[in-house]
């Protein structure tokens, strides 16, 4: 599974900058995306997909002595067509290399 460090390494290699600069750029990008999503407005990143938040209603618990779970927000992600197409291409290529 990839994480933020993998993003920093990729940014560092492609942008030819220092580790600290790449780390700052990644942090700025993640903070900006989180802020846009938290504002409640949908966020669309062309080629990647769209993010939005939706209220998840709380519900009854299966255990009788437990209180009802609280309402909370969930982040929804809908991948773009381009992302789906690229993933399908890569997965097909990986499958051919293994078989």
What structural class do you assign from the helix and strand content? alpha+beta
Shape call: extended
Mean pLDDT: 90
Largest sheet: 3 strands, antiparallel
Low-confidence sequence ranges: none
Please give the count of helices: 3
Number of strands: 3
Describe the structure.
With 99 residues, the protein is an alpha+beta fold. The chain has two domains: 1-39; 43-99, no CATH class. Helices cover 51% and strands 19% of the residues. It is built from three helices and three strands; from the N terminus they run ααβββα. It has helices at residues 4-15, 19-38, 81-98, and strands at 43-45, 49-56, 72-79. A three-stranded antiparallel beta sheet has the order 1-2-3. Helix 1 (4-15) packs across helix 2 (19-38). The radius of gyration is 19 Å and the shape is extended. The relative contact order is 0.10. The mean pLDDT is 90.
Name the features.
alpha+beta; 3 strands; three-stranded antiparallel sheet; 99 residues; 2 domains
Q: What is the fold's blueprint, element by element?
A:
Elements: H1 4-15, H2 19-38, E1 43-45, E2 49-56, E3 72-79, H3 81-98
Antiparallel strand pairs: 1-2, 2-3
